[in-house]
Amino acid sequence: MTVGEKLLKLRKEHDLTQEQFAELLKVSRQSVSKWELGTAYPDTEKLLRISKLFQCSLDYLLKDEVEQMDITIAAANEEARINKIRAGVLTYLSFPPIFGWIIGIVSLKFQKDCMKNKVQIVITIAGMLISLLLTGLIIAGFLFEL
Q1: Which end of the chain is least crowded, N or C, by CB within 10 Å?
Q2: Quick check: 125 and 108 in contact, CB under 8 A?
């Protein structure tokens, strides 16, 4: 509900015409009409008078617009968070360590059957450990936003 909609509602709840309301605030009827239509806003002094007249808080009169802005900001933050997660997942999946794990496991399976070349097995395991270390660094980078 906008400021204008709230003013219209409050004015009608108190059985006031636009003219009567305008007289109480020492403004023109056209000003009240503009406020209610949302083409203009009452100044601070008028808002204080309105809150006293209708015994409502300034928060009530103005907060809806602030809440709408908070919702927009919250939605943007949530979208940014989701985009960050997507970027992290895509980066991780496209990064060589995942392929190092896959190739290392396949290589060890085939080498296990032969077990003739121990140097190749050691190199494969070293490659997998380096791959694991790099993956850990990537995850740490995402967690600590580096």
Answers
A1: C
A2: yes
Q: Rounded CA gap, 15 and 9, in Å?
A: 10
> Is pLDDT larger for residue 119 or for residue 45?
45
Look up residue 96 and give its two tokens.
């060589």
Cα distance between residue 82 and residue 73, in whole Å? 14
- Token code pair at residue 134: 């790099």
Write the single-letter amino acid at 5.
E
> Is-contact 27 19, C-beta < 8 A?
no
Q: How far is CA 56 from CA 24, 28, 51, 59, 69, in A?
A: 16, 22, 5, 8, 22
pTM exceeding the 0.85 threshold for the entire prediction: no
Contacts by 108-115, CB closer than 8 A, 24 or more apart: none
